[in-house]
Amino acid sequence: MVSPGGKMREKKGTKTRKPKGEPELPQEYVPPPLPLPGDDFAMPVREVVKPDNQLQLSEAELNDEVAKMLTANNPTAPRNVARYNVKERAYKFEPMVEQTITHYAADGWLLHRGADEARRQIDMDKMEQEAASKHQSDADRSLDRRDDGDEAPDDSRQLRNQFNFSDRAAQTINYPLKDRETFTEPPPTRTIQGSCTQWGIYDEYIKDLERQRVEEQLKSKGGRAKTQERQGQKHQEEGGQRKPDNPMQNPLLGQAAHILDRMANQNMFEEIAMDFKYWEDASDAVRPKEGSLLPLWKFGSDKARRRQVTSLCWNPLYNDMFAVGYGSYDFLKQASGLVNIYSLKNPSHPEFAYSTESGVMCLHFHPGTLLLDQACCRGDLCTHCLRKSTPPLGMFGPHCKMDQAHCLWALWGTHCLWKSTLPLGIFGPHCLWTRRSAAGALWGTPPLRIFEPDYLWTRLTAHAASKERNVWSGYTAGPSITQLGCRPVQGPNAGCRNSGTIKQAFWVGTEEGSIHKCSKAYSSQYLSSYQAHSLAVYSVKWNCIHHKTFLSASADWLVKLWDANQPRKPILTFDFKDAVGDIAWAPYSATVFAAVTDDGKVHVYDLYEDKLMPMCAQKVVKKAKLTKIVFNPKWPIILVGDDKGVVTSLKLSPNLRKQPKIQPGQKETLEQLEWAKLDHVIDVACRSDPEAMKEQAAAAAKAS
Amino acid sequence: MGDTAAIDETFKRLQSHKGVLGVIVANADGIAIRTTFDNELTVQYAALVTHFTVKSRSVVRKLDPENELKFLRIRSKKHEIMIAPEFERNCEYYLILVQDQAMGV
């Protein structure tokens, strides 16, 4: 159907409706009065609703007749539809176009009674009705029965699976599936990385070899040994598995700390170390007859402050190590003693330190070992092994009734026979116990066993026992020995004719000022005596190269150079204007020696250069008396000890260590040249003294 | 077991030397066991020095497996770090000393 689209809409209804805000309707329309309520027969109200946008027409227009015509054509249908005609192979306009438009369509649900579908539907309804009525009747019946026998109606019966039904009580429990999740702490992870290196492999191989060796040892041993070994191994295994040691208790740490200590010291005293090694006094080249001493390190400690340095000794094995003995030269005020062993590498602190009951008087290192002998004021002799810092290896005291008046002044050339770590015995042919007491008896030791209590002491010089009583009451009948000098055994002229007697002989200086030549072989008397000094002899030192001469130093300000064969008169005499504490020959030259005096000066002489004046006289300490001096056997330095407990090291300038140069082609050795130098000095000195000349000639004649 | 008292004494002495800024003993893991530095510096020194030392040891042992690093000395413009390591199996440790050499001289 085609709707032309009416312009008017009519609506029939009982209600009047006025849209809100609607402009007033035209005045010509008057609505009829509302019907009375309950008047069912009243005429329905007719209402005309005009839309707003309705075209307003004038009267003429309204009266104008509009012709409306129905056509069978669809006005919107296209008239020019072209389709491809396959037969003619060309597009052609469609002559016929669909003119039908469906505006609304609805399917109905009504059926015709006579149709098949309707009949089927009626049958189904009937069947359903029958089933429902049947069920109802059953329910009614069971309800009746329940009323009779109190039984619950089983309305589930209808729903049961009659083929595969099992009662609920007979069923097993079916656990329902459940999901349960928890979060744990993430397991600890660790990044481990390592690298395999050649040396790591090497280490493992070495360990494996060691293990195999132990296993083989186990196999080779049987029985009891096996169990013991097993235990041992167990221990070892425990040792292998045990936790790392506390490094603080590790002995290796101590060593490492020691090295660091030295390094820190090296940094602290860097300039001095450089001076020690490389600095030479340039002014020596300008002034050939003068030398100088360059102070290097000072060695002192709190403990040593109030003590006097009584002995200094370089270690023969290590050229930078030396021992300092502290004690007191005032024999009425004795205190405990101290031994410090220093190294030049660590000037601020001693490597080892020992305290002794009585003051130390003398120290001596065993050649080639780290054994240190020390002699104490009371007459004790101890031996320390420096590798172990614990108690002394041996202690000796004179066997007879000796009291604190016995003083051990000097030690020389003790030799030690070694077996494993304990000395079998000390063979001290030159070990001397001297007595500061009345008689001044000399005690020497024949080969002596340390650990046997009954050591033998031979008396060298016999003196009446009655005189040995009072030391301090003026009964000094015999000499009190203060110093002891022994000829160095080695050397070019040591093996001369009477070498036997030379080895046996030794020289002792006494407090009375005389020097005695003694021999172990003839213990009843002195071989000869030198009336050397008027006060106590403090030092007797043999020349290191020239084995016929020695020096003696005394409190009477003098140092004398002696020929061993001329006891009457010294070859040379040097006046130092103050008490001479100690003297030392230089190890490198036969003509150089150094002396220290109470006014704190060190004097160095080179007899070849100048016999009258020292090459160098230098004050090295303030307000202290110098007591000891030693030359280092290798380096050009000397150590000087004073009575305030300080040891000063000094470097010798080049002029103080002149040595003859060996010309190429020259046959003589350096030692022979040095020997000749001193011989020349002695020769000149003797020529100036006719008496000595005569004596020398007589001695020569006697010898021949 | 070593003589702890002697070691302690040596340590005290080390610290008293002129120019010594501090001493550290670190174990194998680079953890300081004993120190004279403050906490932060100690941790830094111990960790860094330990690594460096292990590297240095590797150098020595790679060149010759029978060789071993014994001592290490680092000289810088300001300080000198001295390290005495020990690589023994059960007692590995590093002993570190820092010294200001300008102060020492």
TrEMBL record, chain A:
Biased composition (Polar residues): 159-174
Biased composition, class Basic and acidic residues, residue ranges: 7-23, 126-158, 226-245
UniProt keyword annotation of Ribosomal protein present: no
Subcellular location: Cytoplasm, Cytoskeleton, Cilium axoneme
Alphabetic keyword roster: Cell projection, Cilium, Cytoplasm, Cytoskeleton, Dynein, Flagellum, Microtubule, Motor protein, Repeat, WD repeat
Region of interest (Disordered), residue spans: 1-42, 126-194, 217-251
Naturally occurring in which organism (per UniProt): Dunaliella salina (Green alga)
PANTHER family: DYNEIN AXONEMAL INTERMEDIATE CHAIN 1, DYNEIN INTERMEDIATE CHAIN
Repeat positions for WD: 530-563
Family in the record: Belongs to the dynein intermediate chain family.
Entry keyword annotation includes Cytoplasm: yes
Name of this protein: Flagellar outer dynein arm intermediate chain 1
TrEMBL record, chain B:
Location(s), subcellular: Cytoplasm, Cytoskeleton
Pfam families, per the entry: Robl_LC7
Roadblock/LAMTOR2 domain segment(s): 7-99
Major localisation: cytoplasm
Keyword annotations from UniProtKB, A to Z: Cell projection, Cilium, Cytoplasm, Cytoskeleton, Dynein, Flagellum, Microtubule, Motor protein, Transport
Superkingdom of origin organism: Eukaryota
Tagged with keyword Cytoplasm: yes
Function, in words: Acts as one of several non-catalytic accessory components of the cytoplasmic dynein 1 complex that are thought to be involved in linking dynein to cargos and to adapter proteins that regulate dynein function. Cytoplasmic dynein 1 acts as a motor for the intracellular retrograde motility of vesicles and organelles along microtubules.
Family of this protein: Belongs to the GAMAD family.
Protein name from the UniProt record: Dynein light chain roadblock
Organism: Dunaliella salina (Green alga)
